[in-house]
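so my prof wants the structure for this chain in the C-alpha cells format not the other one, which i didnt know existed until like an hour ago. anyway here's the sequence
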Amino acid sequence: MGGFFILLIYLLHMVIAGIAVKEVSVAINSTLNQVDFNLEFATPFSIGQTCNIRELPSDAIHAINRATSRSCKQEIEQIACTINRGGYYPDYIQNTCPMGLDPARDYEHKDWDGSTMRPARIFYLLQLHGRAVQQILRLFRLIYHPVHFYYLHVDVNSDYLHTALLPLQIKYDNVFVTNNRFRTMWGGVTLLEMVLSVMTEALWDIKWEWDYFMNLSGADFPLRTNQELTRLLGANMGENFLKPSSTDLDTFIKKQGISHTFVQCDNHMWKLGPRKLPDGVIFEGGSDWISLHRDFVEYVISADDIIVRELEVFYRHTLLPVESFFHTVLRNGIYCHTFVKESLRLIHWNHRLGCNCQYKHIVDWCGCSPNNLRVDQLRKLIDQPEYLVFARKFESIVDNTVINMLESHLTSQQPQLSNLYTESVYDRDFSPEFTPKVLLVLNTLFDIYHNKNQCNTSNDVITEVYTVRNEKRLGLIIQTNHMQIFYTYINPIIFFDHEATPERFKEVIVGTGLDKKERIFRNYHDILTILDSPEVLLNWEQGSQLVISIDWYSPSQELISHFVTKLKSTWSVVFHTPDWVKPLEPGIWRVDIGSNNVHFISVKVAIFSSEIGEENLKMLANEKFDFKEDCYFGYQNNCKITKKCKKTVWSNKANDVLKVL
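here's what i got, hopefully its the right format
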C-alpha cells in the first residue's frame, strides 16, 4: 500500500473527526541514508505541529534505518508520524453481536437429509506459489467438480507456475487463473488484500452461483470426498467455519503481535511499535484457512456496518491479518450466531521444529509454520473426525508416498500417477537467477550424452531440468526441444566398517539449502560449486549415547574441518556446517563419519568449477551422475531414440495429470 493511500486514509479520518486539514507536507532528506525528515500537519487547533522522528517509537526509527528503498522509508515514516499524532486508529468499535461476548460454538454433527437439503456449491480460492505443478494438478483433480468454481491465484514471484496452470482455464469453464497477482509473503498485509479482492470478484464479477468461499494452498490434500464435503456444508448451510486459537485471548494477542503496528514494503513486514487496541470489540483469531458462507462474505465486502470498515483500517497494519480479521468481524458482528469453531482442516504442528523464527528475514517477528505430514502419520490422517475435510501440509518432494496412499484410501483405487515425483528446478524462460556454474554442469552432461551416442543435436538446447525423487533423491531429467535424458545420482556412500556402524544410524546426506524444520536439503538439483557451503545431515534412531565425529577432507586430502559432538540418547538428527573459506577446492571431497573413535562411513562430495577445464569437468560429472535412459516427445531426432517419453516410468511426460482429469 503506497504512501499516498495512507495519507488519503488519514485525511478521511480527520474529516470524519471534524478536523479541517490545511496542509500536509513532507520534508525528506535528499539522501535518505541519514533519516532526519519531518511530517508536518497544520490544523486550526495546532498550527505548524511537527512530527519529529526522534519522538517516534524506537521500533519505527529502527525500521526506517533498515529499509532499503526511498519509498519504503517514506511510507514507514508517514504512517508512524500519523499514528503518533493520534486519531488514525479508532479508540472504540461498537460490538453489534446480539449474543454476548462469546457466541462461537463447537461443531455438531447434523444428519444429511436429501429431501430438505442440497449439497453446497463451493468457490475455491487456491493460493499458490513455487513450482510444484504435478502436486497442484493432483490436488485439483481430486477436488474438481463441474458445480464448483476454482479461482487460482499464483504469487507474483511464481511466473513459471502461473504459466503452467493457464491451460486449466482453457480446458474448464469453471476455472479462472487470475492475472491480478499479489506478493503474498508470510505474515504480510497483501495476503488479506488478495483475499478481499478475490471475494469482491467472486460476488460481483464472476457469474457463478456459490454458497461457500473456501481457500486452499497447494500443500493441502483432501481427507474426504467431494460428496462428503458438500453434504457437510449443505447440512450446515449458513454457518461460518473458522478455527480460533487454542490459547487464551491475552496470549494470542501477544504471540500474534496484534498490539503492534506493522507496515509492509520492500518485501518485508516492519514493526513500528506498540498500539492500543480499540475498546468495544473482542479480538479473535487462529487459523487463516477459512470456509465462509456467501452471506457473511457479502457482509464483509459490501456492508456499511462501521465495525467492518474500522477493523479493515486496523488490519491494514496487522501481522498475519487473515488469521484474525475474519474471526474478529464474525465474533463481534451481526453474523456472530453463525460462528462454528472449526476450519475443516487438520494442520500438522510441531512447534519444536516449526517455531524457530525462520521468517525473521522478511518479518520483524518470530512466527511458526506447520510441518509436512509423512507416511508414518497415515493412520492419523485416516482416523480423523468427519469435519476435518482437508489436511496440510504435504510436499511431494518431501514425501510422495503418503500422498499416494492417502489418494488410494480416498478413491479406493491405485493412483494413476507414478511413485516417482518430478519437479522443475530450471526453465530457460523462467529461471534467470539460475547459477551459471550449475548450468555449465548440466550442459556438460548434455555434451557427454552427445559424444556417447554420436548424434548431432546442434539445434537442441536445454529448456528445462527436473529433479526426480521417491523416498530419496534419484537424479535429474534434462529436457531439450524434443527429448529427455534421465541421469541418476551415483551412490556416494562407502561403508568402511559395518561392525562399527551404530545400530542407531539411519542415513547421512550432504547438500546445501538445509531446511532444519523439515530436515531436508532444498537444493533440489544437488549440484555443488566452489562458492557453496556444503552441510552434512545425519539421521539417527533413539538409543544409547554416542560420541560422533565428522571430518571433511579436500580433494588434495587435507583435513579442512574436524567436528566432535555428543549424540544424546533422545536425539534423532545432527547437522554440521564447517566454517568454509571460499572458493572451495574443486574435485571430490570426502566426509568421514565416526562413532566412539571408529570411522565407519564416508561420503564422496563432488564440487564443481568452470576453472578446471572441460575434460576434468566431464570426469567430475561422471563421478556424480550415471546415464539411465532417454526418450523423445514430438518427433525423433538424430539421436534415433526409440522410446517415447509417455511410455517410460520416469518421465513427467508419462504423468500428464491433465490427461487423467
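also thought this was worth mentioning. Residues 1-50 have pLDDT under 50 and may be disordered.
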